[in-house]
């Protein structure tokens, strides 16, 4: 499959490609939409504590919540099942802060054993997921944030490789540099779940998050890179790419979905999904030429495709849009 689209930036580039990707609803432990300032979870989790309403990431009034550095929420009936990993995603609009400030905390009272916390470090302007085992061995992963603007964050705990991962606005950012033994990651985080505070008042009362939050989602599984992207994309349902042309090469058909025709003959092969004759195979001599395409780049340009390269030497043209023997105003994709 090869897709050519115009006007796609980082925010939009996954649209249309992930529409069929589903997130199993059974893996979603709890979702807090904060619509109208409601702090009750979609699956019934209730809270104590009072916070203020805020304008959400879309600009809708009173559909998010904000913390002033002294407010917090406590959920005593949540309990995070981590048997298959954990993922937490949310929108955040941080205020200016100093030091380490707790965004969410799931641990025992004044006890860091079997703890899972998301912390905003105002001095470094980074948000981190910190996991501690029963012996209080800790690993973390961070992602930078901007003060005063809405950003979407996702953090995952992987029970297979023992590592943490971070994402911002749907894009993978980092993986923890060290791993812990997967079996040492607890299967249950059963302490009190708190937002903008830790459970030990004397210790955590002055380390509360300041800023707005929206669409907090907790999954009792490890989200993949594609799923983390799909969550972010789900908040932009009206954004669609403008496809100039798509070549699916189904059954060896080289005509584009929007009608572009070619000269040249190539063989068919098995595609990336294992379907016979649904991709093209070039032998180093075969090629295709489209004389009626014409790529408009007024709003930018993006090209995506699946490729399974053979051994090659030198620079080999995969796709080229330029004049005959003329490199002026040229666009090429080359495999070296």
Unreliable stretches: 5-26
- For the record, give the distance between the C-alpha atoms at the N and C termini, rounded to a whole number: 21 Å
* Shape estimate: elongated
Helices and strands: which structural class?
mainly beta
Biggest sheet: strands, sense, closure?
8 strands, antiparallel
Write the H/E string, N to C: EEEEEEEEEEEEEEEEHEHEEEEEE
Mean pLDDT: 84
Secondary structure tally, helices: 2
Secondary structure tally: strands: 23
Strand content: 35-45%
Percent in helix = under 10%
Determine Rg (CA atoms, Å).
Answer: 24 Å
Question: Could you explain the architecture of this structure?
Answer:
- The chain is built from 2 helices and 23 strands.
- The protein has 336 residues and is mostly beta strands.
- It is elongated.
How would you sum up this structure in a few lines?
By secondary structure, the protein is mainly beta. It has helices at about 200-205, 225-235, and strands at about 1-5, 30, 50-55, 65-70, 75, 80, 85-95, 100-105, 115-120, 125-130, 140-145, 150-155, 165-170, 170-175, 190, 190-195, 210-220, 240-245, 265-270, 280, 300-305, 315-320, 330-335.
What descriptors fit this protein?
mainly beta; 8-stranded antiparallel beta sheet; 6-stranded antiparallel beta sheet; 23 strands
């Amino acid at each position: 499959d090869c897709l050519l689209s115009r006007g796609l930036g980082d925010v939009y580039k996954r649209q249309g490609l992930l529409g069929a990707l589903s997130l199993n609803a059974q893996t979603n432990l709890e979702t807090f939409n904060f619509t109208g300032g409601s702090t009750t979870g979609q699956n019934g989790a209730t809270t104590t504590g009072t916070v203020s309403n805020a304008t959400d990431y879309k600009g809708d009034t009173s559909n998010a919540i904000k913390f002033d550095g002294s407010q917090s929420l406590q959920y005593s009936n949540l309990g995070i099942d981590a048997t298959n990993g954990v993922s937490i995603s949310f929108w955040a609009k941080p205020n200016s802060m100093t030091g380490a400030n707790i965004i969410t905390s799931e641990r025992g009272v004044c006890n860091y054993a079997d703890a899972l916390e998301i912390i905003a470090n105002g001095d470094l302007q980074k948000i981190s997921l910190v996991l501690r085992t029963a012996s209080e061995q800790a690993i973390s992963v961070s992602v930078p944030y901007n003060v005063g603007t809405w950003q979407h964050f996702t953090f995952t705990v992987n029970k297979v490789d023992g590592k943490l991962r971070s994402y911002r606005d749907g894009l993978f950012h980092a993986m923890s540099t060290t791993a812990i033994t997967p079996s040492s990651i607890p299967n249950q985080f059963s302490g009190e779940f708190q937002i903008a505070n830790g459970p030990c008042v004397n210790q955590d009362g002055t380390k509360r998050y300041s800023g707005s939050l929206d669409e907090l989602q907790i999954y009792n599984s490890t989200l993949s890179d594609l799923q983390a992207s799909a969550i972010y994309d789900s908040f932009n349902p009206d954004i669609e790419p403008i496809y100039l042309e798509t070549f699916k090469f189904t059954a060896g058909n080289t005509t584009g979905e929007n009608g572009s025709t070619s000269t040249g003959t190539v063989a068919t092969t098995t595609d990336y999904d294992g379907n016979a004759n649904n991709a093209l195979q070039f032998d180093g001599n075969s090629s295709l030429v489209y004389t009626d395409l014409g790529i408009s780049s007024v709003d930018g340009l993006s090209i995506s495709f699946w490729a399974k390269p053979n051994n090659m030497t030198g620079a080999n043209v995969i796709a080229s849009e330029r004049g005959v023997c003329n490199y002026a105003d040229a666009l090429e994709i080359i495999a070296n």
